TrEMBL record, chain A:
Keywords: ATP-binding, Cell membrane, Membrane, Nucleotide-binding, Repeat, Translocase, Transport. Residues 8-245, 259-502 form the ABC transporter domain. The keyword Membrane applies. It comes from the Bacteria. This is Sugar ABC transporter ATP-binding protein. InterPro entries: AAA+_ATPase, ABC_carbohydrate_import_ATPase, ABC_transporter-like_ATP-bd, ABC_transporter-like_CS, P-loop_NTPase. GO terms for cellular component: plasma membrane.
From TrEMBL, chain B:
Residues 1-18 have a biased composition (Low complexity). Its main location: membrane. Residues 1-22 are annotated as: Disordered. The chain crosses the membrane at residues 33-51, 63-84, 91-108, 114-135, 142-162, 182-205, 236-259, 290-309. Keywords: Cell membrane, Membrane, Transmembrane, Transmembrane helix. It is a multi-pass membrane protein. This is ABC transporter.
Automatic annotation (TrEMBL), chain C:
InterPro entries: Peripla_BP_I, SBP_2_dom. GO terms for cellular component: cell envelope. Keywords: Signal. Residues 30-49 have a biased composition (Basic and acidic residues). PANTHER family: D-ALLOSE-BINDING PERIPLASMIC PROTEIN-RELATED. The lineage of its organism: Bacteria, Bacillati, Actinomycetota, Actinomycetes, Kitasatosporales. Residues 54-309 form the Periplasmic binding protein domain. This is Substrate-binding domain-containing protein. Its main location: other. It is found in: Cell envelope. It comes from the Bacteria. The keyword Signal applies. Belongs to the bacterial solute-binding protein 2 family. Residues 25-49 are annotated as: Disordered.
Length: 505, 339, 346
């Protein structure tokens, strides 16, 4: 189909991180001058793949061919020299440097090898910005003073300041207004007309339809379909490819009886400006309620605001009829809330400490008299909690960092079990947990609910929400767009709601 | 006197129900290896001292001397270890020692005798610690800057109090405490205080909720906050503790030097930080031991002692001291990594 | 002591003057009140003369000796009804001190007395004052060029070592295989090296004496205690100790007391009140101290006043004050401590 060898061929790329196989033999083929879209759910391996492409990660296995020749992208600089430029989702600009300095960072035009020719740098930056349709950005301004959209343009100018043949754009439209998106697409069109290839990552199907040439779908670290025509492949086929599972999830049965009548957690009009709109929510003991939505839909923010880790702009949270002081984690914990945050390592665990100490950290005062810790009692109690959750290995003194992702999550759950909390807030509970270990974690969560806990679950994996929760709230851009019992929803419908914002027929 | 402590730590690990898990054994081994390698460095130093100066190095007088010299900075280092474990730093320890020692030796304070001097030293130390803690925990200041400010103003205030003069102690009880007649079973009272602070510090770190919270705050402040720990209050207490240690150290220094001077505690901040780091405390927080820090202090003091006994020149001393610090840290890293 | 007196006499001689520099004793705190009957030489005396405004800029008094410098200058100025002293707030910051001296120049004081925080760094401002017609008396820390001052007066670090060495040498000259120990000051400073050199040079005159150990403290009580206790442990017997600085000597004496040692003779340095008191009480090993006299500040005021009144100094034939005055490092022991007691600093 291609008259000349493809610009880039990746085949059988594998990459593992401790506990997770992020890429499990991915194939990708990109032609010069095309817009190649990568599609996949969170955790499907898109980020890892583009980091391999950018030279930031070294693959464990597989082969990369560039313009017909085998190559290794040993470092970001090596990738850049070949002509691969990457625009990351989190912009990697230096706020305190000017636009021109950022654009030329690391390859400044110099005289005699070290004297920076600032005027040349500014002139070439101005030319690049003009080419990108943003001649109004002054190359001398500090990047920190620019809007998010303008920063995106600077990032792109930086990519183009090299001799580029392939540009990777990771969700470039996420921070942009509609007319800025139009400008972005115009730039993409100009680039491809010049023979530059674009690897484009987006959650928005309508964008893929507008500018994409071909689509590769990633799922659980594999390319489940490669080189599909972007314009004509039916939406339902793409959704099916994204969700169709190699490994069936095993979800525990839901309880047959109705949950208790009295809600334990009541949320009324809870708001954080710029993050999510007023939210009402009742949560009863024994019930699991799921929040489904994409990154940026406000789901984690909602959990953290209920927990008091973020201070609400308006509204209130009560537990057992008692209103919590806003913005106080300690008040929430005292009232019986517990949070298993999304970033387990950064927000929940003391990685150097033992399992026991991680479990007992919220309950220390119970095992201490006058500040003196009764370590025997502490150990027995922590151990009872970890055994109840079948945490492996059953060794209370190992440092928690040596545990697998699933068992680390159990350590966090055990902390709240030991505390005797009434409401459990779970943010992406299976993030970084091996697919095989998930079923066990689901069973644990359901069992905790059956024992009378109320669970509020956030997950970007739609099947997880549907399989585990009793009721589901679908979020899009900080707003609840749909509420329904989990039984009445299916994955396609939720994905439609999440991706398109309106219930598709 | 410091020997019982490492043994106690090892014993404490062993009394915990062992489940025979190999990862746990590995951790235990690693913790012990770190301490053992420090003991190894100390043993090597003792060997060097014994070989080069067999007469003057290996006698009771010299042991008393080394431990006495280690006492003042040792007490400061115990407080510093807590602060570093919690992810902070206290650059003001030397200045606090200076300020407490001159405030406690003014003519007015000395009128209240022994108790007046002791009380003033401790209260001034804790007062400075309180200010540090409030600025850092509730004022949102970076520890480096807040304690640097305390360093500057503490030294300034000390100078203002003394006018650059040496304040001689006239209270007999205080003076006597630093002399040979007061030794208890051959142990100088200063060393007893140092030992007591070490033991209390060890217990505080390893057996109390305070110690747990300190480690949690240093290991992952965000996780500690989300686990319901009052991180700010904990930070306040930690700097207060460091201030208290400085107050005690100031009193010991008054006893030792028989005077108060605004130049006291010169560069204690660096010595204490260095001893803690050599002792295996992570500068980034979350891990550290009292035993390691105390061994670090003893290594430093022994080095200084050997140098003086061998009559080395100042320049040679400084070069060799730098080399030994690097060597001690490398030995420790190497042995810890091989396990 | 007789050797010192004769040496002093010699240096007063014309031979020294002809070389352009005069090394004069200025340890005396007594007023120079000898009347002059030579009508052609105008010498400064206690009688009120022309009004003189003296600008005085010193470093921050964070050390007993510097404190004494300020006190000596102020007291001396108060003594003269014709002298107005404009003293600045002491500063260790070179830039701040330059600013202070410039302010004094702008105020058009008649004479400047400057003890620089750093002699080299303040040379320019000294030159500026001289060019503005304000004569500068440079106190102790010397400017980089003689053009920056009309007169320099200061202490003699090498001489301190010499005096200490000679004193100890004379005390031990009949003892066989005498052992001497030196507790030096901050080794980073050139003055410490000069003191040690003078000490060593003096000891070379005594073949029976060997210096067996030298350790450096850093002028603080704490370091004195620490280094001295190590020295005592290292040297189980010796006959004499010279300690460079009486401040660190407080710590050294404490260490000696703690070690229960009294088998040697100790000589101090600088001239602190506590050292004088100990010498007078004669109940410790400290038997003498060699001066680095703070009275040089009082003498600087005398010289500045004489300059302002265009007079010479009494007891000397010169019409003008000397351009270079090095103060003698006298040895103070039990015999003459009374005389010096009032100059001791805290």
């Amino acid at each position: 189909m291609a008259p000349e060898p493809p610009l880039l061929t990746m085949s059988g790329i594998t990459k593992s991180f401790p506990g997770v196989r992020a890429l499990d033999g991915v194939d990708l083929q990109v032609q010069a001058g095309e817009v190649h879209c990568l599609l996949g759910q969170n955790g499907a391996g898109k980020s890892t793949l583009i980091k391999v492409l950018a030279g930031a990660h070294q693959p464990d296995g597989g082969e990369i061919t560039w313009r017909g020749e085998r190559t290794a992208l040993k470092s970001p600089i090596a990738a850049m020299r070949l002509g691969v430029a990457t625009i990351y989702q989190e912009l990697d600009l230096v706020e305190h440097l000017s636009v021109a300095e950022n654009v030329h960072l690391g390859h400044e035009p110099t005289t005699a090898g070290f004297v920076v020719r600032a005027r040349d740098a500014k002139a070439s930056t101005a030319a690049l910005l003009k080419r990108l349709g943003h001649g109004e950005i002054d190359p001398g301004r500090l990047v920190g003073e620019l809007s998010a959209a303008q920063q995106q343009i600077v990032s792109m100018a930086r990519a183009l300041s090299h001799e580029v043949r392939l540009i990777v754009m990771d969700e470039p439209s996420a921070a942009l207004d509609p007319d800025e998106v139009d400008n972005l697409f115009r730039i993409v069109g100009d680039l491809t007309a010049d023979g530059v290839a674009v690897v484009y990552i987006s959650h928005r199907l309508e964008e893929i339809r507008r500018i994409g040439d071909r689509v590769t779908v990633l799922k659980d670290g594999r390319a489940v379909a490669g080189g599909l025509p972007a314009k004509d492949t039916p939406t339902k086929d793409l959704v099916a490819l994204m969700t169709g599972r190699n490994l069936e999830y095993v979800f525990p049965d839901r309880p047959t009886g109705p949950p208790a009548a009295e809600p334990v957690l009541t949320v009324r009009g809870l708001t954080r400006h710029g993050e999510f709109e007023p939210l009402d929510l009742d949560l009863r003991p024994g019930e699991i309620v799921g929040l489904a939505g994409l990154v940026g839909s406000g789901r984690s923010e909602i959990l953290e605001t209920i927990y008091g880790a973020r201070k609400a702009s308006a509204g209130q949270v009560s537990v057992g009829g008692e209103t919590l002081r806003p913005g106080s984690v300690r008040a929430a914990v005292r009232a019986g809330l517990g949070l298993a945050p999304e970033e387990r390592k950064a927000q929940a665990l003391l990685m150097l400490e033992s399992v026991t100490r991680n479990v007992s950290v919220s309950t220390m005062s119970r095992f201490s008299r006058g500040g003196w810790v009764d370590r025997g009692a502490e150990l027995r109690a922590a151990r009872a909690a970890t055994r109840e959750l079948s945490l492996r290995p059953d060794q209370p003194h190992v440092p928690v960092r040596t545990l697998s992702g699933g068992n680390q999550q159990k350590a966090v759950l055990a902390r709240w079990l030991l505390r005797g909390c009434r409401v459990l807030l779970l943010d992406e509970p299976t993030r970084g947990v091996d697919v095989g270990a998930r079923a066990e974690l689901y069973a644990v969560i359901r069992r905790l609910a059956d024992d009378g806990l109320a669970v509020l679950l956030v997950s970007s994996e739609v099947p997880e929400v549907l399989g585990l929760a009793d009721r589901v709230l679908v979020l899009r851009e900080g707003r609840v767009v749909h509420r329904a019992p989990a039984r009445d929803l299916d994955e396609h419908r939720v994905l439609d709601l999440v991706l398109e914002g309106s219930p598709a027929s | 006197m410091t020997q019982p402590a490492p043994a106690a730590e090892a014993a404490a690990h062993k009394t915990a129900p062992a489940d025979g898990g190999s990862p746990w054994r590995a951790t235990l081994a690693r913790a012990d290896v770190r301490t053992l390698s420090l003991l190894g460095v100390l043993a090597a130093l003792i060997l060097i001292g014994g070989v080069t100066q067999p007469d003057s190095f290996l006698d009771t007088d010299n042991l008393q001397l080394i431990l006495t010299q280690a006492s003042v900075i040792g007490v400061v280092t115990v407080g510093m270890t807590f602060v570093i474990i919690s992810g902070g730093i206290d650059l003001s320890v030397g200045a606090i020692v200076a300020l407490a020692s001159v405030w406690a030796t003014t003519v007015a304070t000395q009128e209240y005798g022994f108790a007046g001097i002791l009380f003033t030293a401790v209260v001034v130390g804790m007062g400075c610690g309180l200010v540090n803690g409030l600025l850092i925990a509730y004022g949102g200041m970076v520890p480096f800057i807040a304690t640097l400010a305390m360093l500057a103003s503490g030294r300034g205030l000390a100078l203002q109090i003394t006018d650059g003069k040496t304040q001689m102690v006239t209270v007999d009880g205080v003076l006597r405490l630093g002399e040979r007649d007061s030794y208890v079973l051959g142990i100088p009272p200063l060393v007893l205080v140092f030992a007591a602070v070490t033991v209390v510090g060890w217990l505080l770190l390893n057996r109390t909720t305070f110690g747990r919270r300190s480690v949690a705050v240093g290991g992952n402040a965000e996780a500690a906050r989300l686990a319901g720990i009052d991180v700010r209050r904990q930070r306040l207490y930690l700097y207060l503790l460091s201030g208290l240690c400085c107050g005690i150290a100031a009193f010991l220094l008054i006893v030792l030097a028989g005077s108060g001077q605004n130049t006291n505690g010169n560069l204690y901040e660096l010595d204490a930080i260095a001893a803690a780091i050599i002792g295996g405390t992570l500068l980034s927080g979350g891990r550290g031991t009292i035993v390691g820090s105390v061994l670090g202090v003893l290594i430093f003091t022994t080095i200084t002692n050997i140098f003086a006994l061998n009559n080395l020149e100042t320049a040679t001393q400084q070069i060799a001291k730098g080399a030994i610090i690097v060597a001690a840290v490398l030995v420790q890293r190497r042995t810890a990594n091989n396990h | 002591m007789p050797t010192h007196t004769s040496r002093r006499g010699l240096l007063f001689g014309a031979a020294a003057l002809s070389s352009g520099a005069l090394i004069a004793g200025c340890t005396s705190n007594e007023p120079k009140d000898e009347g002059s009957d030579d009508k052609e030489q105008q010498v400064a005396d206690d009688k009120p003369g022309k009004k003189v405004t003296i600008g005085f800029a010193g470093p921050q008094a964070d050390h007993g000796w510097l404190n004494a410098i300020n006190d000596q200058a102020k007291k001396r100025a108060e003594k003269y009804s014709d002298v107005t002293l404009e003293a600045t707030e002491g500063s260790n910051d070179t830039a701040a001190q330059i600013g202070q001296v410039e302010t004094l120049i702008n105020k058009k004081v008649d004479v400047l007395v400057v003890l620089p925080a750093d002699g080299k760094a303040l040379t320019q401002v000294g030159l500026k004052a001289m060019k503005a017609g304000i004569p500068v008396v440079n106190l102790d820390r010397v400017f980089a060029t003689p053009q920056a001052y009309r007169c320099w007066i200061g202490g003699d670090n090498y001489g301190m070592g010499l005096s200490a060495g000679h004193y100890i040498g004379e005390k031990l000259k009949d003892k066989k295989n005498a052992r001497v120990v030196e507790l030096a000051g901050l080794d980073n400073l050139e003055l410490t090296k000069q003191r040690s050199k003078g000490f060593d040079d003096a000891l070379k005159n005594y073949s029976n004496i060997e210096k067996v150990a030298r350790q450096a403290a850093d002028f603080t009580v704490e370091s004195g205690q620490s280094k001295m206790s190590q020295l005592l442990q290292a040297q189980k017997n010796f006959d004499a100790l010279w300690n460079h600085d009486d401040d660190q000597g407080v710590g050294a004496l404490r260490a000696i007391k703690q070690a229960g040692r009294d088998d040697f003779l100790m000589v101090g340095g600088a001239g602190a009140l506590s050292a004088f008191q100990a010498i007078e009480a004669d109940n410790s090993v400290l038997k003498a101290t060699v001066l680095y006299p703070p009275t040089m500040a009082a003498s600087a005021i005398d010289l500045a006043r004489a300059l302002g009144q265009s007079k010479g100094v009494s007891g000397m034939a010169e019409f003008e004050i000397p351009s270079f005055v090095t103060c003698y490092s006298a040895v103070v022991d039990k015999d003459n401590v009374d005389q010096y007691m009032s100059t001791g600093f805290k």
